[in-house]
Design a protein that fits this description.
6-stranded antiparallel β-barrel; Elongation Factor Tu (Ef-tu), domain 3; Helix Hairpins; 3 domains; alpha+beta; OB fold (Dihydrolipoamide Acetyltransferase, E2P); single chain; 4-stranded antiparallel beta sheet; 22 strands; about 350 residues
């Protein structure tokens, strides 16, 4: 008995579903599958889209001017470091040949200086006895000063190679790599025990870490050539950060690059947007983001979905229903945002526009 009731209920449900499908199909067949969209008033904004990343305005790669091995690291990634505070301690690591050559050069310079000093002392006595001319005495003094300077240079080179630091009259040179700016450490590339190649006029040197002031951020991205001619510095941009979909970040267009870049078949122009208001969120270097730059803005205008517009001989048409028949109607259009389009003339608010069903793919 119970099973019989279940079967009856199931049969009735099937009949109800079949009836609904029939009624819906009949209605669609009656209209030929057509739908009607009313002309309404709304707002349209034409925007240019740029894709890029959030980056610090100023990022510095820290390098050493002294070769050697990293002996100590005084920070962790993400730390705020003030300017001139220590970052790394470099331990000199000369090769045996470099050490021997430097020591021998210092010793040779010292011997030569002692020799010139003794010669100068003799000539001073002779000069007082008026046995040496003024010019000869001046030449001896000049040679002694030159050799003394060479010895000092050789001595400082050896001390720097051996100890990693020297004290000069007006400054000190040591093996401590200091922060060139106040900022946050973004990345560490050198660790304890790593060899360091110095920065010179002939080589770029080892990148030890990178730093930036994260209070000064900007969006760097690219925009299509179709839109770049409509942009001007000073335009306000809405920036959407990929990792923070609900966040609202405001920016101002500062720079458009003068030279294009090819990306596949597209021609793109670089641009920079200064972040003027990040709200309460924390932005991080490298966040992917999309910037929307408002070009034009119209409010309370007649709009319809752009998909309802057809083109014939450089004219634009829509379809309307009149006395049960479909007829084409020419319209004048204006601003578009890619979804909706402005109707300048040809339609009135509330008028119904025909939307045909999508064509089936055969």
């Amino acid at each position: 008995m119970k099973m019989k009731k279940v079967l009856i209920i199931g049969f009735l449900v099937i009949l109800l579903v079949a009836a609904m499908v029939f009624l819906f199909s009949s209605k669609n067949n009656k209209n030929g599958g057509l739908k009607f969209v009313a002309v309404k008033k709304g707002d349209i904004s034409e925007k240019a889209l740029a894709v890029g990343t959030i980056e610090p305005e100023k990022e510095i790669k820290v390098k050493s001017t002294i070769p050697g091995l990293v002996e100590e690291v005084y920070f962790k990634i993400g730390d705020w470091i003030e300017k001139d505070k220590p970052l790394f301690k470099i331990s000199p690591n000369p090769t045996p040949l470099e050490y021997v050559e430097s020591r021998r050069n210092m010793e040779v310079a010292q011997i030569l200086m002692e020799k010139i000093r003794n010669e100068r002392d003799r000539k001073v006595k002779m000069y007082k006895a008026q046995l040496v001319s003024d010019s000869e005495m001046e030449e001896t003094e000049s040679r002694f000063s030159e050799i003394s300077l060479r010895y000092k240079i050789a001595q400082e080179r050896f001390e720097l190679l051996e100890k990693g630091r020297i004290q000069m009259i007006n400054r000190s040179v040591d093996s401590i790599v200091k922060s060139p700016m106040s900022g946050i450490v973004l990345q560490q590339d050198a660790f304890e025990g790593d060899a360091v190649v110095p920065l010179t006029n002939f080589q770029p040197g080892t990148e030890m870490c990178s730093m930036a002031d994260m209070s000064l951020l900007r969006f760097k991205g690219k925009v299509d050539e179709i839109d770049v001619g409509k942009l001007l510095p000073g335009m306000i941009a809405d920036i959407q950060v990929g990792a923070l979909l609900d966040a609202k970040v405001a920016g101002r267009l500062e720079r458009i690059y003068p030279k294009a870049e090819k990306e596949g078949n597209a021609t793109m122009f670089g641009l920079e947007i200064a972040i003027i208001d990040a709200g309460k969120i924390t932005l991080r270097a490298g966040y992917s983001a999309t910037a929307y730059l408002k070009i034009k803005d119209k409010k309370n205008i007649l709009i319809i979905p752009e998909r309802l517009i057809t083109f014939e001989n450089d004219k634009r048409f829509v379809e309307t229903m009149r006395d049960g028949k479909i007829e084409k109607k020419e319209v004048q259009v204006g601003l578009s945002d890619g979804l909706n389009i402005e109707i300048i003339s040809g339609l009135q608010a509330g008028e119904q526009v025909v939307e045909r069903p999508p064509r089936e793919i055969e």
